[in-house]
């Protein structure tokens, strides 16, 4: 019997217009009423994730920044935090700026960039209600740590520089794609799988009793951790390959389908 569901937001629970369907909301509410712990596990900034948690009426902790933060929504405090130290990513920042690659740095409420451009416009098209602040060169920006960092550019260029970054990246830093044009970096202890495991352990839930639902490579760790890893129909082929079940797409209420099939027995 499943007791915990960890669910990604973008391209999984959220439709292409970044909304949650009434069918998905209803299925989540019914699962929660049945005693299931439904938790949001997202790469989004804490402020943006909070909006969807509140919309769903959930009062359980949720994970933001790919698992770098686990937030108690009642107290509004982080119960877990694992951030990238500036010294661990400074060389990557220098390299990216030298090659004119756009960089996003974060805190819980804001995004910090060298300058606004087409990539900030693209990011703001779905990360609504989050302030973007121009600070000049991020090499000189005064920060001690960040929950995550994103390099944004065309995929071909990112593939090229990622191979070079592999040559000098710290062992304490994760590097992965979360979208076609997003090459992300987090602390080695900031993964969705680790966050889901921490919450499962907190509640005394075995991994065999966990479902994880996602679509992209930032979801891989939680899809592998869960007793049942589910990829939605629009997921990357690599994620479908490691999943135990393929659900309908985010546009076809894939999350509701999973809850109805494995939790609500419909």
UniProtKB/TrEMBL annotation:
InterPro entries the UniProt entry points to: Cof, HAD-like_sf, HAD-SF_hydro_IIB, HAD_sf
Source domain of life is: Bacteria
Alphabetized GO MF terms: magnesium ion binding; phosphatase activity
Instruction: List, alphabetically, the GO terms of the cellular component aspect.
Output: cytosol
Spell out the CDD domains in the cross-references: HAD_Pase (cd07516)
Under the heading Pfam families, the entry gives: Hydrolase_3 (PF08282)
Name listed for the protein in its UniProt record:
Cof subfamily of IIB subfamily of haloacid dehalogenase superfamily/HAD-superfamily hydrolase, subfamily IIB
Please name the source species: Dethiosulfatibacter aminovorans DSM 17477
């Amino acid at each position: 019997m499943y007791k915990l569901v960890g669910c990604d937001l973008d391209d999984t629970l959220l439709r292409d217009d970044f909304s949650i369907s009434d069918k998905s909301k209803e299925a989540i509410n019914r699962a929660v009423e049945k005693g299931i712990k439904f938790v949001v596990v997202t790469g989004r900034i804490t402020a943006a994730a909070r909006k969807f948690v509140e919309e769903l009426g959930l009062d359980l902790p949720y994970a933001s920044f790919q698992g770098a933060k686990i937030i108690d929504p009642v107290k509004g405090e982080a119960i877990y935090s694992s951030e990238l130290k500036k010294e661990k990513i400074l060389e990557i920042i220098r390299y990216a700026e030298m090659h004119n690659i756009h960089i996003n740095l974060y805190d819980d409420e804001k995004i910090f960039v060298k300058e606004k451009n087409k990539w900030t416009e693209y990011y703001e098209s779905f990360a609504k209600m989050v302030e973007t602040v121009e600070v000049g060169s991020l090499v000189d920006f005064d920060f001690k740590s960040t929950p995550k960092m994103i390099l944004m550019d065309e995929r071909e260029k990112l593939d090229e520089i990622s191979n070079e970054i592999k040559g000098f990246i710290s062992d304490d830093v994760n590097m992965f794609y979360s979208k076609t044009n997003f090459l992300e970096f987090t602390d080695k202890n900031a993964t969705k799988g680790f966050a889901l495991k921490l919450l499962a352990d907190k509640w005394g839930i075995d991994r065999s009793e966990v479902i994880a639902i996602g679509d992209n490579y930032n979801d891989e760790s939680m899809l592998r951790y869960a007793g049942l890893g589910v990829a939605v129909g629009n997921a990357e082929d690599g994620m479908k390959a490691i999943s135990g079940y393929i659900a309908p797409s985010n546009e076809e209420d894939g999350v509701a389908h999973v809850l109805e099939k494995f939790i609500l027995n419909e």
